[in-house]
Design brief:
Blueprint (H helix, E strand, L loop, with lengths): L4 E4 L5 H12 L4 E6 L11 H4 L9 E2 L2 H5 L4 E4 L3 H14 L2 E4 L6 H5 L2 H4 L3 E4 L5 H16 L5 E8 L9 H13 L4 H4 E2 L14 E7 L5 E9 L2 E9 L3 H14 L5 E3 L1 H4 L4
Parallel strand pairs: 1-2, 1-4, 2-3, 4-5, 5-6, 6-12, 7-9, 8-9
Antiparallel strand pairs: 7-10, 10-11
Amino acid sequence: MDNPGIVVTGASGRMGQMLIRHVMASDRVHLGGVLERPGHEWVGRDIGVVMGGTKTGIIVSDQAAQVFAQASAVIDFTAPEATLKFAETAAQAKIVHVIGTTGMSDAQIARLAPAACKTVIVRAGNMSLGVNLLTQLTRKVAAALDEDFDIEVIESHHNKKVDAPSGTALMLGEAAAEGRGTTLAKVADRGRDGMTGARRRGDIGFTAIRGGDIVGEHDVMFAAPGERIILRHVATDRAIYARGALKAVLWGLDQRPGEYDMLDVLGLS
């Protein structure tokens, strides 16, 4: 498809604005529309102006169905319930839905299945190439080491992030659990406070740090008596997520309806 139109949801957010800038700068796609929630002060205004630039002719809308009908794909980094509504609308319009929303529960993720029967959904806890390579490494290291090695996922983000552990941390935990032949639901240790007792053998622990303007740092620690192995990814610029999302859009345009992730996009699955 030549120069497809891309919709960006959550236009006023930091990630939304980053995505808008990247779509507008691309020579492979064009900005087909932008969305914000009903009642937001940006609705009805030119996106270029409200972002501090010049007029673009693209007006911020709160009508997803109308905007989706004129586009080929939507990139969505919003909130779980909003994403579920967008999934239904994207499925009706039969446009690619790239989801970078974090904090979705297993039950919410399961609710994406009907939409994926009608259109392409690419969902990932993290859109960066480096993190997805880290996921693969985590799975392989976990498979190679026995439960003498405790696994801890340590993540750091800015002080405005609302969910913990991060979607990326959970993605890494799931990879570690898969490497050990189990599920994260069975072995996750997501909270420690007070007299918790000794660590249970085989658990996968999570530590969440929130502070300042940290973009995203993730460590997967394998700790055994006398030694530790630490796999690490550090993000210094949110642009990596925007680039990954655009890559997912372009890949998704050539796929059949279904649920995919960044490992599929990158040919690593």
